[in-house]
Amino acid sequence: MSSTDLENRIIAGQTVSEKLLMLLKTRGALQASDAGKLLGTTGEAARQQFVKLAKEGLIKGKSEAKGVGRPIQLWYLTEKGHALFPDTHAELTAQLITIIRNQLGETALDLIISVREKEALSNYKKIMEGATELQERVERLVAIRSREGYMAHYDVDEKDGSILFFENHCPICFAAKICQGFCRTELNVFREILQANVERTEFILSGNRRCAYHITPLT
User: Fold this and answer.
1) In whole angstroms, what is the distance from residue 26 CA to residue 14 CA?
2) Using CA atoms, how far apart are residues 182 and 179, in angstroms rounded to an integer?
3) 210 closest CA partner among 173, 158, 157
4) Rounded to an integer, what distance in angstroms lies between the CA atom of residue 172 and that of residue 138?
5) What percent of the chain clears pLDDT 90, i.e. is strictly above it?
6) Among residues 187, 189, 181, which one has the least CA distance to residue 110?
7) How far apart are the first and last CA of the chain?
């Protein structure tokens, strides 16, 4: 599923403001003119909506130099804007992790993470049955992770044929901030079910807007 297919599926039936927020979530910073083109409207109409969203604290504008000429105005989601996209049961999950760590110790928490990894691996492997090509396995992973709320998509690098896998949202981000073991085990699961080299190149917890992975066949 390409990023455009993902956006079209998600933004259908949404208001203009909601569509713009979704575009910023899935594509990152945008100029009003580019956002207008993506939505089939004018750049000025998009700019007016951006200004409105900025007043609500959901986005912010920033002037950036780009080559020769006047700086361009880019619009970004703020922390408040990112918070509009659900973090599944964030508060309850954080409380449970803290209780387990304080009452039972780090070993117990590691055990829970390990069990979760094994269950995810088992479930994902069932969905991968019959997929012999790497790209087909990635397509199935995109479908799985999108259903789980990660807003996933992938692209193929035309230069070398490697695959770039993206997750524009993390529904367990709050829990992952408290315990990064969740992210470590997910990377292990990806490598196992894809039967490929998988390297994380962007990481939400490191300040990137999304998680991204570079995937190549095993040699």
Assistant:
1) 15
2) 7
3) 173
4) 21
5) 37
6) 181
7) 26
Q: What is the spatial distance between Cα 195 and Cα 137, in angstroms, rounded to a whole number? A: 9
Q: What is the pLDDT of residues 40-54, one digit of tens each?
A: 889 899 989 999 999
Residue carrying structure tokens 């196992």: 192
- Inform me whether the pLDDT recorded for 67 exceeds 90: no
Q: What is the largest CA-CA distance in the chain?
A: 60
List C-alpha distances in Å: 114 to 11, 53, 109, 144, 168.
36, 41, 9, 20, 25
Q: Select, from the ranges 28-32, 123-127, 184-188, the one with the highest average predicted confidence (pLDDT).
A: 123-127
Structure-token match 């981000």, residue found: 173
- What are the residues facing 215 on neighbouring strands? 163, 198
> Alpha-carbon distance 210 to 201, whole Å?
10
3-state secondary structure of 215: strand
**DSSP secondary structure of 37-79:** HHHTS-HHHHHHHHHHHHHTTSEEEEEE--SSSSPEEEEEE-H
A 10 A CB-CB count for 135 gives 13
